[in-house]
Amino acid sequence: MADVFGMAIKDYQSGHYTEDIKTYSSLDEEDVIPIPYLFRGFKEMPVIEQKALKLAKGKVLDIGAGAGSHALYLQNKGFEVTALDNSEGCVDVCKERGLTSVVLNTILDYSEERYDTLLLLMNGIGLAGKLNNLSPFLQHLASLLQPNGQVLLDSSDIIYMFEQDEDGGYWIPNDGSYYGEVSFEMEYKGVKSAPFDWVYVDFNTLQNACDSNGFNCELVISGEHYDYLAKLTLKK
């Protein structure tokens, strides 16, 4: 499978930035991921990400680290942080940018250590892919946590992307699937990724899933556009 994300990030890191990543989704929307944004410093990060980084404690695993910007910030603050990504290109760039602990793997295949903080930023919970994968995904996260550990994740309720009727209700396709499930493809310099599943989870749905999988789920802050930061801790 083409490492589209890794190719783009490596180009930017080596000074060959000429275009952004195009994304195509089952929501019929074509969009772009601006590559410079993936290299942002703390001041350029959204408030939700800044808050998550301020709440980080102890030994940290940055899941889906990308170009490593979150992990780098924490490492520079003195944290013991590991950047995890399943993209070879991303892992190479994380190392080039000075991260000392970088792992090439998918989160579901990773079980090496336990952490005080698991970071899932930029809708990292989307890695679960589908709503019915959320329970096993959360159970796996639990297995990576120290007893007093925490998961810090952000996501969005994408209900706003559906048409609203006059009484304020939303027209959601009744095909049996959860409305936050999206299929994506990415394209960079003419190279397309294989389609992959991604899920945006509204807070109530996340809370219910956490409750049935041994987590407390706290809403830390809401963003300006249906997005939020949640803190998950293991029930005693």
Automatic annotation (TrEMBL):
One of its GO terms (biological process) is methylation. It holds the Pfam family Methyltransf_25. Keywords: Methyltransferase, Transferase. SUPFAM superfamilies: S-adenosyl-L-methionine-dependent methyltransferases. Residues 60-149 form the Methyltransferase domain. The keyword Transferase applies. One of its GO terms (molecular function) is methyltransferase activity. This is Methyltransferase domain-containing protein.
